[in-house]
What does this fold into?
Amino acid sequence: MPTFCRCCEFFLQTHFRAPLVFATELYPRKEFRLPEILSQEQVIDLLQSIKNPKHKLIIGLFYGTGMRLGELCHLKMEYIDRKNFQIKIVGGKGNKDRFTLLPKHLLPEMETYYCHYRPKIYFFEGHKAGVPHNERSIQDAVRKAMKDSGLERFGFSSHSLRHSFATHLLDQGNDIHTIKELLGHSKIETTMIYLHLQQKKRATLCSPLDFLLNQNE
It folds into this structure.
């Protein structure tokens, strides 16, 4: 679509009755907003404040695996590989399969949960055996955990835990391509947003002004 100068716009608007639609109105600029993430200290406080073992396990899996809400709800028992400490995500976003991490520290809690609830097919099942837990119930568990830990005011969600998973992996020095595969992103550009959220690398940066003045002290 052609662009017009202000004079052309005025002429066209005053001589033609039909309203004109310009490119900026058809394709508004998309806002760029960084996702909200929890600090490592907030994650520890969150886990320590949860009294309900099932809710604590839900939070631990979101943060420790980077799974999406729908992926956690439809996690089947057969996809949990305790031997190799990995979880297979089947039919994720874009109908893609992938592997993600299974935190070693969660294994005892997962075994206790299994012995208590005895799920048949899905790890988290509703009142009816063999039927996955609905997403709203999982979301409610996350919201309650955030409220009990005093983090409710930040608006954190299950997806915030996924963002935190990726960002903290970067802070540990893991490469972005590996994190892309763990998250199941189709494009590396999607994963690169977490570069903006890295704390460790930013903490070591020195302003050019400070560097210059330090050299002359």
